[in-house]
Amino acid sequence: MAPAYVFGYGSLVNRYTHCYRHVRRARIAGWRRAWRHLQGRTVALLTVIEDRQSQLDGMIAAVPDAEWTALDLRERNYQKTKADNVEHALPRKPEVHIYHAPDWMHRPAQSMTPIALSYLDVVVQGYLAEFGEAGVARFFETTDGWDAPVLNDRSAPIYRRHRPLNAKERSVVDDHLSAFGTRFERRRP
C-alpha cells in the first residue's frame, strides 16, 4: 500500500524538524496561513485557513502508516484533513493530508499572544533552504497576523525543535519582521 503524504506549511518545511525521508516541494491552492491566538496557549499557533484566492508553497512528506500516530501527536492542536489541489512532482497522485486548527476546535484568547521567534526561525530557515529568498517573501505575504508581537526567545528557545540560525538566516528573518514594524517582547523569566 502506498503511503499517504502530509502537506507541511510551517515547521514541517524544515527537513531538520522531522525524520521523513521522502519529502518533495509542493504547492497547495485554497489555503492561506494565519497566526491564531488561543486560550490556554502562551504563544500564537500557525495554522491555515481556507482561501480560494491563495496558494502556498510547502513540502509533502510520505508518512508510513505506523508513523501517523506520532505525527497526530505532534500536531495534536490541529485537525487532519484530506487536502486537494496539491501540485507536486510525484509521478502518481497520492492521498495528501493537511493539519489545520479550525475555529470550532479552540477558544480564542482574550488578547493577542506573541509569535515565538524560535518557531518562526525554524519555519523561515526551512523556506529559505527549499525556496530561497523569494520563497521566504511568499511565506510572509501569504501569512496573516503579523500585527502580533514577537517573543524574542532566541537566547533560550521555547520551541523544542528549534535549530540554530546562521547570520544570513537571522538577517532574512529580522529584515522581514522589521518591514512589518514588529514589536518585540522579551522572554519572561
Mean pLDDT: 92
Order of helices and strands: EEEHEEEEHEEHE
Number of strands: 10
| Uncertain regions spanning at least 5 consecutive residues | none
Q: What count of helical segments does DSSP give?
A: 3
Which value, in Å, is the CA radius of gyration? 16 Å
**Helices and strands: which structural class?**
alpha/beta
What kind of sheet is the major sheet? 7 strands, mixed
Overall geometric form = globular
The helicity comes to 10-25%
- The percentage of residues in β strands lies in 25-35%
Task: State the separation between the terminal residues, measured CA to CA.
Answer: 50 Å
Q: How would you explain this protein's 3D organization?
A:
By secondary structure, the chain is of the alpha/beta class. The strands form two sheets. Strands 1, 2, 3, 4, 5, 6 and 8 form a seven-stranded mixed β-sheet that branches. The mean pLDDT is 92. α2 crosses α3. The protein is globular.
Key phrases:
189 residues, alpha/beta, seven-stranded mixed β-sheet, three-stranded parallel β-sheet, 3 helices, 24% helix
